[in-house]
Write a structure and sequence with these properties.
- The structure holds three protein chains of three kinds.
- Helices cover about 70% and strands about 0% of the residues of chain A.
- Chain A is mostly helical.
- By secondary structure, chain B is of the alpha/beta class.
- Helix content of chain B is about 35%, strand content about 25%.
- Chain B contains ten helices and 13 strands.
- Chain B has helices at about 40-45, 70-75, 90-100, 105-120, 135-145, 165-180, 190-195, 215-220, 260-270, 270-279, and strands at about 1-10, 15-25, 25-30, 55-60, 75-80, 155, 185-190, 200-205, 210-215, 225-230, 235-240, 245-250, 255.
- In chain B, the strands form three sheets. Chain B has a six-stranded mixed sheet, sandwiched between helices.
- In chain C, about 70% of the residues lie in helices and about 0% in strands.
- Chain C is elongated, with a radius of gyration of 18 Å.
- Classes of the chains: A mainly alpha, B alpha/beta, C mainly alpha.
- The interface between B and C is small, with 7 and 9 residues.
């Protein structure tokens, strides 16, 4: 490093743009290598300006990069903070959605092969996915920060409903696309929709009392047992017929009412 | 800050809290008690997560049954085993809790998140994933989220468990710092924590408050009742490094009076009735 | 907490590469002021300069890993800074370089102190403002011909010819 350094006067004149180009060029070449002279310039830029720019830098550096699902939510107009709360959900993250897709894909492929049994497996699996998704979306295990959330002013009930709705929507969209794409546009490919709603809302109500994971497992197991029991002799879609659908609607409705009645249990 | 009278909480047959009465003001208050004394139940109750079955509770001058939201807005809470989304960065996690604390405006929220991360000295690692942090750093992270929104009351459940001596020291520094202008309640079963950083202590035993006062007052309970002797004696007695027995209780023969510690007082309180009878 | 302040730039940059936010803060405190001033000499619009400085340090955060560990950190930062300024200029359609020209043209005093550049400095002082701007942009600011053209608002070809003329003149002066 050279023995030449700027003095305060020179620093001021350089900062104010008053140096002739040649001298300025020399100063600039020197500055790249001299920490001491660089620091002489620090007071020449208003603190507030530096702070303002730093605040922008810090924010750009800190701001979390949203996952694909979060970006999708923002794109359709969800507030960024709400998107964040939803995006943190296990069952709305890529691995979970990918796993659901694969499961559905197999079921759909199976239905293509063997007609009625296959369709049955598809209709059986489709409502289980949102139940499982909801079961791991909240509660002590599903949301690691659950206990902290309980003492926060944000309504846990609202958060839970939002997450359940998001899980239900995403898995339904998945099942619908897959069904229509691989199984044709017969109405039966959407016959799982009401069962989905019924089973999911049932899981939610039970969660007001028990661990959501246990609730999800119990509901899914019951569903499987009932489906198997009604199909022991031969494949039948009886459970997805008119009477069945009315039943699911009723379960959904009753669960909804109970859920609202028990909402305080969630926070 | 906190006024509690006759708090009762029952789980099945057991009573976690059994008519607990105490008050808490500004500064650092230690909830001291053995495992199972009801500390966690009490902290969760103070955090408005649990409601008492019986008794009167006022938090920040309000009734938690009615004004729960208002209390939660002025409260910071670190649970005993806080969960972290381990794939989150430090910043993301605190930001997440900030959203739960109703900080909606993005920019102001991020500024506040930066502030609390700075306050606990984690700025360096704010972009790192939580799974890469040491235990001491995670504990700091836990503290950081309690500071969001500059709450008047901070509740820490067993915040020093599992820290090594140096981490513990830095942690005490941090807690005494944040306890300067607000109320901090921390539960612990370690008398060292209490002696080192609390200006008040509430001792719990089987869901009841058996002592309320300063650490010095606890220590004073054991004044004149701790002895060194060659023989085992007293209600509580153990052999120390130099071969002598340290006895708490009445003076054994040929014993030398020892300077009591907070722990001696605490042990006397826990062994209370037995010690009393022996005295 | 304040130990970062005693670190060298190189060590700070290494820490930044490892995700150390505090190191970035210290680096910013050290390098933002001179960068603001130097960029202001290239572009008179403070809003653009602020944007460029902001982008620079965000880029430092994201690309610290690519620093080879050789040479001055300040020079590396400058290389990013001047290019971010160019990006800003490109985004605005108006040709905004009055400051550059002004600095060049107003330099009538020709007071030359024999510092650093010595004879070269004197020789540069005798160049016309246009040639000097080209030398400054390419040699001093380290820009490519195309980048220099963009900064000065002239075609790259012109930069090349002016540079050749400047070199020839300087050679004469310095022999």
């Amino acid at each position: 490093m050279s023995t030449w350094h700027m003095d305060d006067g020179l620093a001021v004149r350089y900062a104010d743009g008053e140096l002739n180009p040649t001298l300025a060029a020399s100063v600039e070449a020197h500055l790249l290598a001299c920490d001491r002279c660089r620091s002489l310039l620090a007071p020449r830029v208003p603190r507030s300006r530096l702070d303002r720019v730093w605040a922008e830098v810090a924010d750009a550096v800190d701001t979390p990069t949203p996952g694909p699902f979060e970006q999708l939510l923002r794109a359709i107009g969800v507030h960024d903070h709400t998107a964040r709360l939803l995006g943190a959900t296990h069952s709305l993250r890529l691995p979970w959605i990918a796993a659901s897709t694969v499961a559905l894909l197999f079921a759909a492929l199976a239905s293509g092969e063997t007609t009625r049994w296959g369709l049955l497996s598809y209709l059986t699996l489709a409502p289980i996915l949102p139940v499982a998704g909801v079961a791991v979306a909240f509660g002590r295990d599903g949301d690691p920060a659950h206990e902290i959330g309980l003492a926060a002013p944000y309504s846990m009930f609202r958060l839970m409903l939002m997450r359940a709705a998001a899980v239900l929507t995403s898995s339904s969209a998945l099942a619908l696309v897959m069904g229509l794409g691989l199984l044709g546009d017969d109405w039966t490919v959407a016959a799982w929709l009401l069962p989905s709603l019924a089973l999911t809302s049932l899981t939610l109500v039970l969660s007001s009392r028990f661990d959501p994971r246990h609730c999800g497992a119990a509901v899914a197991a019951t569903w499987l047992v009932v489906v198997v029991a009604t199909n022991l002799r031969e494949p039948s879609l009886a459970m997805f017929g008119g009477a069945g659908q009315a039943g699911y609607l009723a379960i959904t409705f009753v669960s909804g009412v109970l859920l609202i009645a028990r909402r305080r249990e969630f926070s | 800050m906190i006024e509690a009278a006759g708090l009762v909480k029952t789980y099945g047959r057991g009573r976690a809290l059994d008519g607990l009465t105490f008050t808490v003001g500004k500064g650092v208050t230690g909830l001291l008690g053995p495992n199972g004394a009801g500390k966690t139940t009490l902290i969760r109750m103070l955090a408005t997560v649990l409601a008492p079955d019986e008794g009167e509770l006022r938090l920040l001058g309000r009734d938690p049954a009615g004004d729960r939201l208002e209390i939660r807005r002025r409260l910071g809470y670190l649970p005993q085993e806080p969960g972290y989304q381990r794939g989150f960065t430090v910043f993301e996690f605190v930001d997440y809790v900030a959203i739960l604390k109703e900080m909606v405006e993005r920019r102001a929220r991020h500024d506040e998140v930066r502030r609390v991360i700075e306050e606990v000295g984690l700025t360096s690692v704010s972009g790192k994933r939580i799974r890469t942090l040491s235990g001491g750093m995670r504990r700091r992270l836990g503290i950081a989220q309690t500071l969001l929104g500059d709450p008047e009351l901070i509740l820490l459940d067993e915040p020093t468990v599992g820290l090594d001596p140096e981490q513990r020291l830095r942690f005490r520094e941090l807690i005494s710092h944040i306890g300067q202008d607000r109320a901090v309640v921390l539960s612990t079963h370690q008398t060292e924590d209490v002696a080192a950083l609390c200006n008040r202590v509430v001792v719990l035993k089987a869901g009841r408050c058996v002592f309320e006062g300063t650490p010095e007052e606890i220590r004073a309970l054991a004044e004149g009742r701790v002895w060194f002797s060659a023989e085992k004696s007293g209600v509580l007695s153990w052999r120390t490094g130099d071969g002598l027995f340290r006895n708490i209780g009445p003076a054994p023969e040929g014993a030398r009076l020892a300077e009591p510690t907070v722990e001696d007082g605490y042990l006397l309180l826990l062994g209370g009735t037995a010690a009393e009878a022996a005295a | 907490m304040s130990e970062h302040e005693s670190w060298t730039d190189a060590r700070l940059l290494e820490a930044v590469a490892g995700g150390d936010r505090r190191a970035l803060e210290v680096l910013y405190a050290r390098h933002a002021p001179w960068l603001v001033i130097r960029l202001t000499r290239r572009c008179a619009d403070p809003a653009l300069v602020d944007e460029a400085v902001q982008d620079t340090f965000v880029a430092v955060w994201r690309t610290a890993r690519t620093w080879k560990g050789k040479g001055e950190v300040a020079a590396w930062i400058w290389g990013i800074g001047i290019r971010r300024l160019l990006d800003q200029l490109r985004r605005r359609p108006a040709v905004p370089l009055p400051a550059y020209e002004q600095v060049m043209v107003s330099a009538e005093e020709q007071v030359l102190l024999g510092i650093e550049y010595g004879e070269l400095g004197q020789a540069m002082g005798r160049l016309s403002p246009e040639l000097r701007a080209v030398v400054q942009a390419t040699v001093l600011d380290g820009l490519t011909t195309r980048e220099a053209g963009r900064l000065l608002g002239i075609p790259a070809g012109t930069v090349k010819t002016r540079m050749m003329r400047a070199k020839a003149l300087l050679r004469e002066e310095l022999v």
